[in-house]
Model the fold of this input.
Amino acid sequence: MADFSFEADDLESLRIGEETERRALAALMDTMTSPDKPFWLLGARKGSLRDDMDLKTDIWLNTPFGEIPLQIKSSPWGVRKFNKLYAAMFPKVIPVAILLNYTPSDIIDVIGLRLQQKDRRFRHPPPESRLDLEWNA
Done:
């Protein structure tokens, strides 16, 4: 009799991964309308299957500094594995561990922390442009 436990484990891992990606995108989208929205969050969209396969990108984050590709993982182990296998080939992709017990607020906080770790521009809002200052005068 064949042992299908490996396949069942793989399917469960895929389910958890898809649910984690969904939770991350939902947290980002819900935060878009919040008065507490972080300065770095201008928008977010789910990556396509091709983005995931070819670019290792689950979510595209629109920021004041351009689009940032995120790889969402459900554990720190997944982030370590991603870094070992793909970080050199995809240096712009930011892997983020979203644990099962994270609230939407936790998810936003951990994404913000990972952005700050990757690029110091995310530590402080950019100065308003001269055009913005003139427009609002």
In short: The longest strand covers residues 66-73. The two ends are 77 Å apart (CA to CA). Residues 129-137 have pLDDT under 50 and may be disordered. The CA atoms of residues 62 and 89 lie 22 Å apart.
